[in-house]
Amino acid sequence: MKQLFTRWGRVLDKHHVLPEYPRPLLVRTDYTNLNGVWEYAFTKSYRTPECYEGEIVVPFSPECVLSGVERQLMPDEYLWYRRCFVLDGWTERRKKGRRLLLHFGAVDQSCVILVNGKRIAAHTGGYLPFEAEMTDFVHEGENELTVAVKDLTDTSYHARGKQRLKRGGMFYTAQSGIWQTVWMEEVPGEYIRRIETAPDLGNGSVRITVESEQDMEVNIRIRRPKIYPEPMRMPEEMSQTGEAIAEVSGRTNQEIEVLLPQISPWTCEAPYLYYFTVQMGDDLAVSYFAMRKFSVEADADGIPRICLNGKVQFQKGVLDQGYWPDGFYTAPSDEALIFDIQGMKEMGFNMVRKHVKIEPQRWYYHCDRLGIVVWQDMVNGGGVYQYWLVTYLATILSWRKIHIKDRYTGLLARKEKAGKLEFAKEVKDTIRSLKGHPSIAVWVIFNEGWGQFQTKDMIDIARNLDPDRLIDGASGWFDQGGGDFRSIHNYFFKLEVQPDPERAVVLSEIGGYTFCEKGHSACDKSYGYRDYKDRESLQLAFGELTKRIEDLIPEGLCASIYTQWSDIEEEVNGIWTYDREVQKIL
């Protein structure tokens, strides 16, 4: 595979990597970013290395060029990370009851965390954030942090997205290890664990729940809503966002309803955000919410339509898998994330489907403040996929409107009970982690039958956790009749829709038009669904597809999603090249 760099990767400073505050939904000022240069080693057994092999730039996976390693972690190996950090004045602060938390945005797939040689945490789930308390394991002066990683990739049922050890076609180079920001924060003895908001647009209020270990008094101050064309990068910026319009007190671990004196709804054209501060004892945190509502409602002709704030919104979307040629899962900079989202809006898209990947929280923050709707996929896993069924036969069955029941879980690569339980847990964890982001409109549970099982049960789990969002239970095929959408993938046949009496009809994957831009492709082979020899014919075909979509809206089409935003390895069906240098479709 040829090495491509993005403009941001070319100028990466390995000592200042992704320095922006990583958790915009719960902001504190006292934190330390641990991205940058660590030591690494590969071992065949779970034993701390006697010596390390070299330097790795965190949070880039060892497989990618920006990590400085370019080495695949295999299922029978362990990857070890090590770095030291210094705590000055910790002894006195500890006496005053201060605590120290360690945060990981994501580590793929399983890991063990050690501080000064002592195990403090373990985690499995390569796409979800987690934290560990270091308070009783650190001391004044220099401390050692070690992370041991195991990644089974596609040899197990764990969540893996599009990763495969033998890449090719629509599956890509496997990546592993730490791939999102690592950071520490110091907190008081009693601290805010989590903040959850539930806007009620019809009532003109918001319900806020502040979670803590002990029930405590809490004070909330909500500031005047604003639109934020420029990103806030550091906590200090996020804590100074305008005059207060509402102030209430209450108790933690219970809902506090706040009536708002003015309502500025969140829309794609005017994405108003309400920032607020939470004071609980000695702890102060900043968060935000937006006033908006997504729903499916019948139009004047009785056709179910997607609505934003009670008004019909046709959601014109693009599939985004979040891959980068130099960083794989990890964008080389915050500016790179913004580039993609702004580009989508400039092309006329008002929605993006985040495909079988969970991004760092800052990506969702940019969608929130820039005003683009997000359909968030759950990350697929399961055993070996039967491609003759889930790719080829399923395409024909879907076209013929023949549906297979998901009780045939063996055919859909979900046999192990442990894998089913793990997927259900990760659905809950994904929703719990991301539900605060107002841009997210839809949870997509399964994609094209990959590891699909008990679809209606999974829909119920999602609905109970988040009753205010829409659900696509089975994107593509193997529809089980639940959720808010009849969700169709169509790459090969004439686009058509037939209204559903209760659900909105969406074309959740279409297009996939292929054109290889010489000098900007990572592979000699090309993969896609319809090949074009030059940009002119590609542009013409895209225009015809767009016109066909517009013609289907009066017939009942509620959303469309074009595949895809950028090329990825062999799959050169992107609007942009993999390196984000050439826009193939204008």
Proportion of beta-strand residues: 25-35%
User: Total helix count?
Assistant: 9
Poorly predicted parts: none
Structural class: alpha/beta
Distance between the termini: 27 Å
Rg calc: 24 Å
Give the biggest sheet: 8 strands, parallel
Total strand segments: 34
What strand order characterises the main sheet?
29-28-27-26-25-34-31-30
What is the multimeric organization of the chains shown?
Answer: single chain
Helix content: 10-25%
The mean pLDDT is 95
Principal-axes geometry comes out as globular
Give the helices and strands, then pairings:
Layout: H1 7-10, E1 31-33, E2 36-43, E3 54-58, E4 78-87, H2 90-95, E5 99-104, E6 107-108, E7 110-115, E8 118-124, E9 130-133, E10 141-150, E11 163-164, E12 172-173, E13 177-178, E14 182-187, E15 192-200, E16 205-212, E17 217-223, H3 235-238, E18 244-251, E19 255-259, E20 274-280, E21 283-289, E22 294-298, E23 304-308, E24 311-312, E25 315-320, H4 334-346, E26 351-354, H5 361-370, E27 373-377, H6 387-399, H7 417-434, E28 440-447, H8 455-465, E29 470-475, E30 485-490, E31 504-511, E32 513-514, E33 530-531, H9 535-552, E34 557-563
Parallel strand pairs: 11-12, 25-26, 25-34, 26-27, 27-28, 28-29, 30-31, 31-34, 32-33
Antiparallel strand pairs: 1-14, 2-3, 2-4, 4-10, 5-9, 5-14, 6-13, 7-8, 7-10, 15-16, 16-19, 17-18, 17-20, 20-21, 22-23, 23-24
Helix pairs in contact: 4-5, 7-8
